[in-house]
Amino acid sequence: MKETEIIRLKDDVQLNNPIMFVGLPGVGHVGKLVVEHLIENLEGEKVIEIYSPYFPPQVLVNNDNTIKLVNNEIYACNINGQDILILAGDHQSSTNEGHYELGSLYLDLAEEFGVSRIYTLGGFPTGEFNHNEGVIGAVNNINLVEELEGYGVEFRENEPGNGIVGASGLILGLCDFRNIDAACLMGLTSGYIVDPKSAQSILRVIDRILDIEIDEEELEKRAKEMEKVVEKIKTMKEQQETGNLPQKDEDINYII
Amino acid sequence: MKETEIIRLKDDVQLNNPIMFVGLPGVGHVGKLVVEHLIENLEGEKVIEIYSPYFPPQVLVNNDNTIKLVNNEIYACNINGQDILILAGDHQSSTNEGHYELGSLYLDLAEEFGVSRIYTLGGFPTGEFNHNEGVIGAVNNINLVEELEGYGVEFRENEPGNGIVGASGLILGLCDFRNIDAACLMGLTSGYIVDPKSAQSILRVIDRILDIEIDEEELEKRAKEMEKVVEKIKTMKEQQETGNLPQKDEDINYII
Amino acid sequence: MKETEIIRLKDDVQLNNPIMFVGLPGVGHVGKLVVEHLIENLEGEKVIEIYSPYFPPQVLVNNDNTIKLVNNEIYACNINGQDILILAGDHQSSTNEGHYELGSLYLDLAEEFGVSRIYTLGGFPTGEFNHNEGVIGAVNNINLVEELEGYGVEFRENEPGNGIVGASGLILGLCDFRNIDAACLMGLTSGYIVDPKSAQSILRVIDRILDIEIDEEELEKRAKEMEKVVEKIKTMKEQQETGNLPQKDEDINYII
Amino acid sequence: MKETEIIRLKDDVQLNNPIMFVGLPGVGHVGKLVVEHLIENLEGEKVIEIYSPYFPPQVLVNNDNTIKLVNNEIYACNINGQDILILAGDHQSSTNEGHYELGSLYLDLAEEFGVSRIYTLGGFPTGEFNHNEGVIGAVNNINLVEELEGYGVEFRENEPGNGIVGASGLILGLCDFRNIDAACLMGLTSGYIVDPKSAQSILRVIDRILDIEIDEEELEKRAKEMEKVVEKIKTMKEQQETGNLPQKDEDINYII
């Protein structure tokens, strides 16, 4: 495989003015959690698989011991008459040039499907565990700010200070070349753990964008499990400071 | 050398429905030990050499002081009427894209020879020195599970947890694009040392696959040497914990 | 985006024997500070934007929360009848080959505009905070030495000892292939902080090159802010040596 | 510069059955010292310059403050009727694929000039400062062993144990594809310092290969300077072990 390969699972995909959501692995896996929840709840149908020499040489192993080569995938769904495309998956890119090549490829596909609006979803690392409901925004077109503030997105001056690194930022930048409006929605998160609560915050913004109310049960369950893990981490930290070593804990797998 | 180069040592290689075994350097060098043992005992004939700018810029030096440019090689043999191809060698890949390019190339060759089944061989790192006979499996086609369980391969739910990284996993994933059935057989091993015992475990599975009994003498000898090394390591660890420093030991070269 | 992309913002750019200044991020951000000051004070008009898969996958976020894909830019201005081109921007290169490809591209553009002289601007790291007015020079044509000494550039034997690494050195080397005279002007700087004072030193050499006097107010203001930061750093160092820990300080952002 | 560039300084280079010596920077800079000494003493004429995006983005600065883009160079000379080509320079390669591409390019040029024998020169790291006269050999053709032993080259069984990494090994391996006989001559050296004494050892082997006696004065001078540095290092080590810290020493620049 010398080049990225696109596998089309459905030949005749007709969409009307779709919105695209992008949630690749990143800070707190927030974006990934959101899109996986959307695909589940909106009954997304997989239409495209993307394999690439820019992904790690790795297969994931399913519960039934079959393997899956790491990839990214595009799902299509429709809610309230609004066509939606969702880009989800396993990896951003293993190389610098790969980021640009894959990002451009995603936008080739977006253009092909007539996408007019892209939301990239991610986490905004705060370094603190105390949960904050906020969802911070950045846009590639200033006319989007007012609309997004209406959806509950917060715009802070000078934030993020160092810009946005990775696919959720790059895709916004590349959208400029395609005249596609795009915004990055970042849920506030510690940056140390997988964060379903932060995903819930973004989901509520998406509810307002789509004017629906997506069931949150799955994320709520994971959020409760994560609260226990955060409590354990806080306890471990106190124990370390006082000199008592904690027990080995499987829950620590929730830490990214 | 801008591209990977394939040197064919034999022009007219006709094989009937061959099985392919892949054992490149990896965890515990388990896969490598197995295929080297197979090539020796089944009198494999080298048919292909593969050189690549994705291998390190390195030559190995033979006992007679002649050099050999690092490469991978394919051997052909036949046992009990079953044609076999064996991919063995010095290196997986020095770059990310190289993994994908080389993996695809190996499968181009597999398809050319009409390979219908590929077994990639490797080690499953446990972190523990106490030897376990088990061989864990992962497949790219669920129909293979029952057959492999019949050969003594163990399938554990959720294992390996982080998937399989490297050629032995990637080749399975790429086989999906070629409609070649493939399985990864992983001998349990500490992950710290070259492990001939783990190679023996895989060899016994291969005995059942091929319905033969391959002489284990060479591996048995190496396994006994390794047991002495493991004892020394355990003693060294105890000495470190009690404060007595061990002697410098040449056997420590067996550690990967 | 598989290749570097050049966006021309103005079609018909006619320049007469222009001089080019190059100030990409580097030691002390000295070169960057100089060219940004020149663009501001000489009212540079942006004529070219350069995007590249060799830049990091990153967008910067403006005060109004709109994003900008990392890039480099070329500005044109004219002072005292002398046409000037200025190459400024966000990044040198994320890969080795990228350095060479981008450098060659900049010189393709320089040749296209008929550039006859290029000055690359940077910092010469001394490891010391005490400010030194000096600007050290290196040239690709020995005939430039005397002229530059006339502008106040210092030429030290055997300095810089390890040569010049990065765009400001590479561009000089590549100029040899194009028969463009080029010099690297390096302001003495600690190497630990963004250094507006060092930028002022280079600016005064440029004043003599162009026979003008560029207003220094902006740089002067930043230099005064930096002096306070340097004082704080010196105090912090003393505190560390005596055992008193310093307060958390926002000014430390000035450290590169 | 997207590709490696070859600048030919002389159009009509006719050589008769030349021998090629390769001495690129490596362990102890031994090979580099030898070829620079040969070029000087045999009055080598530069015939080719090689620039490459695989070399670092760097210029070296000469005493007169002019710069030189990092490159490798080929010199031609003749001694006792024997045509000689010498490959010398600044760098091996910054990337894995670069090693293979450059190595192949050097051999394209070797073939073009009708080279029948290549000697790559380097250092064999021992970890010890006490000087050993020995020059270890490795060959790509077993028939070379006896001849080289006649020149005083030592062949040790199982040495070098991990093969030869880098240009001096790779070139030998690539020579196999060109039917060019090649040998690597490695002077024993600590591996910690630039080692002119080790270069002298190789030079004496070259004297026997070419049946001449090359003046050693330059290398002898450098060897004496290095002996003083080695003494200082030994003293520093003792001081560290006894607790007295040494003075800052400029000679420590001799350490690689």
Provide an overview of this structure:
Chain A has helices at 30-41, 96-112, 144-150, 167-175, 196-210, 217-242; strands at 5-8, 19-23, 45-51, 58-61, 67-69, 72-79, 82-89, 117-125, 135-139, 164-165, 181-189. With 256 residues, chain A is an alpha/beta fold. Chain A has a single domain (5-214), classed as PAC-like subunit (Rossmann fold, 3-Layer(aba) Sandwich). In chain A, the strands form two sheets. Chain A has an eight-stranded mixed beta sheet, with helices on both faces. A two-stranded antiparallel ribbon of chain A has the order 4-5. The longest helix of chain A is centred in the last third of the chain and has 26 residues, at 217-242. The model of chain A has no long low-confidence stretch (mean pLDDT 92).
β-strand percent of chain A reads 25-35%
Task: Give unreliable regions of chain A as ranges.
Answer: none
In oligomeric terms, what are we looking at? homotetramer
Named CATH architecture of chain A: 3-Layer(aba) Sandwich
Q: Tell me the greatest interface.
A: A-B, 22 and 36 residues
Strand order of the largest sheet of chain A: 1-3-6-7-2-8-11-9
Compute the number of strand runs of chain A: 11
What is the residue-mean pLDDT of chain A, rounded to a whole number? 92
Q: Structural class of the secondary elements of chain A? A: alpha/beta
Classified in CATH, the superfamily of chain A is PAC-like subunit
Distance between the termini of chain A: 30 Å
User: How many discrete domains of chain A?
Assistant: 1
With helices defined by DSSP (H or I, 4 residues minimum), what is the helix count of chain A?
A: 6
The CATH class designation of chain A is Alpha Beta
Tell me the major beta sheet of chain A: 8 strands, mixed
What order do the helices and strands of chain A follow? EEHEEEEEHEEHEHEHH
* Global morphology of chain A: globular
Radius of gyration of chain A: 19 Å
According to CATH, the fold-level topology of chain A is Rossmann fold
